[in-house]
Design goal:
- The chain is α/β, with parallel strands linked by helices and 396 residues long.
- The chain has two domains: 172 residues, Rossmann fold (3-Layer(aba) Sandwich); 210 residues, Dehydroquinate synthase-like, alpha domain (Up-down Bundle).
- 50% of the residues lie in helices and 10% in strands.
- The strands form two sheets. It has a six-stranded parallel sheet with strand order 1-8-5-4-2-3, sandwiched between helices.
- α3 packs across α4.
- The structure holds nicotinamide-adenine-dinucleotide (NAD) and fe (ii) ion.
- The site of fe (ii) ion (FE2) has 7 residues, from α5 and α9.
- The site of nicotinamide-adenine-dinucleotide (NAD) has 32 residues, from α4, β6, α5 and α9.
């Protein structure tokens, strides 16, 4: 990776919603808000602010969890008809990915809507924008609010497809901790573990750079410190703000490095067993880190043990040996998952041995093809990948 991408502006801090008006005034007359049925109920204040800044607002609230290409195509139809100068994605990662894909289709009428997942880094997307794109995350997990990637499920094939292009990075990201305060404890926990997955995948990925490293480390530290508090008391707005910052900072980190083995496994499990993204990541993270810490790195890849022990020390683990520090970091992740009530294995997540055996070949085939696999600092395929999935199921 030889560039660093981020939105032009990330608005964060106290009372940001009140300061949004000045940011939007005089920049257009029409805004489209893309959201889902849960979040539309909480969109009142945001919509009022946009209206007061001089915009007519249309709302599309059809986004689904684990979003599909079909949802994005539906949302893009509204954009093409309404022709807004501002597109807002308001919701969790699922909404944001739907909004991103819809915005790409609006800006690039030449792309056949059902070919949206064929967009890749080489696709020439139109940089002359019809609309500014603003993301307003309501979960603290995916970092999709600042990344140039989209993940959509292709339901027919039971697989999630991730694709990226540098033109997909949003223009503005608005962080309002109050929007995340309504997350139930389990969603807070699983999305929080996703942050750790992004930070540690991003820090150990083959594409890590000096620019992404600091962001990944800081996001990891914030999540270790504040996730327990956000889970213990959802109304603790300081904890909500810190977790929201951690998620977006991790997004900037892994968005400029990559996610890796943990996400290759998690995408596959999510699509096969319908496990929410953050929960799949929480389950696969310790196993994937153990795997990279105990297998030889690919030539030219960062040394996983050197990386993980540095991360461990940044998280406050004091140990002389790199191996021991790495082990303690992985144990710290397991302790956090336990403390926040998240499962430590697929078995604990309710997947039966029969389900696992029936799907093992498919899991191995899908994970081998997942783009995140190419970022892993260690090769993981065939029998080794099969064994890794079996360990993730059994909790070994
Ligand atoms: N594009 C990227 O860079 C990227 C990175 C990581 C993950 N993802 C994708 O993001 C998706 C997961 O997103 P997510 O973990 O944010 O969950 P989500 O968006 O799927 O939301 C889960 C549920 O929580 C609800 N919800 C959202 N905010 C809430 C709030 N404040 N209060 C109460 N309920 C709320 C939603 O309505 C939904 O029903 C996956 O599809 C994953 O693949 C994308
Ligand atoms: Fe993730």
């Amino acid at each position: 990776m030889s560039h660093f991408l981020s939105p032009k502006k990330i608005l964060f801090g106290k009372n940001m919603l009140r300061r949004l008006g000045a940011e939007l005034e005089g920049r257009g007359q029409k805004a489209a808000l893309i959201t889902d049925k849960n979040m539309v109920k909480l969109s009142g204040e945001l919509v009022e602010t946009v209206k007061n800044a001089g915009y007519e607002v249309k709302i599309w609230d059809g986004a689904e969890p684990e979003p599909s290409t079909a949802g994005a195509i539906e949302a893009s139809k509204l954009l093409k008809e309404f022709k807004p100068q501002l597109v807002i994605g308001f919701g969790g990662g699922s909404v944001l990915d739907t909004a991103k894909a819809a915005w790409v289709l609006y800006e690039n009428a030449e792309i056949a809507p059902d070919e949206i997942t064929s967009v890749n880094v080489k696709t020439k997307l139109n940089p002359q924008k019809k609309a500014r794109f603003m993301t307003v995350p309501t979960t603290s997990g995916t970092g999709s609010d600042v990344t140039w990637a989209i993940v959509l499920a292709e339901a027919a094939e039971h697989r999630k497809v991730g694709f990226a292009n540098t033109e997909i990075v949003p223009d503005i990201t608005l962080l309002v901790p109050e929007f995340t305060a309504g997350m139930p404890r389990a969603l807070t926990a699983s999305t929080g573990l996703d942050v750790l997955g992004h930070a540690l995948d991003g820090y150990t990925a083959r594409q890590q750079t000096d620019f992404s490293d600091g962001l990944c480390l800081q996001a990891m530290k914030l999540a270790f410190e504040w996730l327990p508090r956000a889970c213990a008391d959802g109304d603790d707005l300081t904890a909500r703000e810190k977790m929201q910052n951690a998620a977006t900072i991790a997004g900037l980190g892994f968005g400029n490095s990559n996610t890796s083995l943990c996400h290759a496994l998690a995408h596959t499990l999510g699509a096969t067993f319908n496990i929410p993204h953050g929960r799949s990541v929480g389950i696969t993270l310790p196993y994937s880190l153990e795997y990279i810490a105990s297998n030889p790195p690919i030539e030219g890849a960062p040394d996983p043990v050197e990386r993980l022990s540095t991360a461990a020390r940044f998280a406050g683990i004091k140990d002389e040996s790199d191996q021991e520090a790495t082990k303690k970091l992985i144990q710290k992740l397991r302790d956090l998952a336990k403390e926040t009530g998240e499962p430590l294995s697929l078995k604990e997540a309710g997947i039966t041995e029969q389900q696992m055996n029936d799907n093992l070949d498919t899991l191995v085939a899908l994970a081998s093809k997942d783009v995140n696999m190419y970022s892993s600092p260690c090769e993981c395929k065939d029998e080794k990948l099969r064994q890794l999935f079996q360990d993730v199921w059994a909790g070994k």
